[in-house]
Amino acid sequence: MDYHNIINPLQICGFFLTKVASLCLEVLSTVLMKKTLRYLAGVAGPSGYGSNSTAEQVTEASTSWSHFPSQLTAIVTGATSGIGAETARVLAKRGVRIIIPARNLGKAGDVKDKILRESPKAEVIVLEIDLSSFTSIRRFCSEFISLNLPLNILINNAGVFSQKMEFSEEKIEMTFATNYLGHYLLTEMLMEKMIETAAESGIQGRIINVSSVIHSWVNKETFCFSKMLSPRSYNGTRAYSQSKLATILHAKELARQLKARNARVTINAVHPGIVKTGIVRAHKGFITDSIYFLASKLLKTVSQGASTTCYVALSPQVEGVSGKYFADCNETSCSAMANDEREARRLWRHTRLLIHMQLRHQ
Predict the structure, then answer these.
(1) Coil, strand or helix: which one is 295?
(2) Which family does it belong to (predicted)?
(3) DSSP H helical segments within 217-339, as ranges?
(4) Quick check: 243 and 175 in contact, CB under 8 A?
(5) What is the pLDDT of residues 210-242, one digit of tens each?
(6) pTM score of the predicted model
(7) 97-102 and 73-76: which strand pairing?
(8) SS3 for 47?
(9) Could you give the CA distance from residue 96 to residue 111 in angstroms, rounded to a whole number?
(10) Are the CB atoms for 210 and 247 separated by under 8 Å?
(11) Which residues does residue 209 pair with via DSSP β-bridges, in sequence order?
(12) Is 143 in contact with 63 (CB distance < 8 Å)?
């Protein structure tokens, strides 16, 4: 018998699977190429804005908020530089009272002075905080509450990236402690004030968690709560991406809880993009110049980087939207793990238990 003429069903399956995989890769490649071209061209999405839109451009339409009887108040963490400082500047320009929590009061004072030079009528208040310290966060919240101000907007923007393993005063890995746990506690301690403000003013409260597309690099095996608190081996990029995934899961679960309470407060996560900080050309030549040129087109200016945060904070188009993920001023998809409701609830429970145990010992 000529076995070469017998068609093996497994071979048929293998052939078709190979073809399907090849087709999927082609489709994926085409989709990514289209997305990249749209990004480079700054093509506007459904919101009317795109990757090239600036924070000032996307908040021009927010003047419709000015008819409300009370001034909006926003807390912006990480506002001493970069995207946070630009977010504070633009919101202040639109008439929002700005609270800057900062570890470095000198840098915060410089940002305040810069805002007031541009917008002399702006109200900017600087308060001390260390987001890696639960004690400091509690102190900041007490100081803010004592000011008897409303709270309409909370922007959890601050973030750290460390190449070496460091620990907070609570003995928690610093990146996770600052980027996620600190903002979790800050949000929890200010939540009732936000709900109260929304009920009294009739203005929907908004919380924005600044995340990153790098959250999609995390897989389920490495996303272990106890290991993130105190990793046996440390990788800065992994720690940063884990903290950014946690911020999205936080937004997803808190959005569910707020909806269940019928609270007039929303929470969303945003990816600001990769911001241009200056590219150093060490070598000259056509190839290297071309690479640097292409790379510069993929990066954003600080104002473009702050645009999505400002859009979600002020745009009337985002009214009532909660538990979503935004990039380039448009709602978009996040990773499958970031959409996992069970993972979000599990992370919430672990975090709440940890923080309450820590606070009991303080």
Answers:
(1) helix
(2) Belongs to the short-chain dehydrogenases/reductases (SDR) family.
(3) 225-229, 236-260, 286-298, 302-305, 307-314
(4) yes
(5) 999 999 999 988 999 999 999 999 999 999 999
(6) 0.85
(7) parallel
(8) coil
(9) 15
(10) yes
(11) 156, 269
(12) no
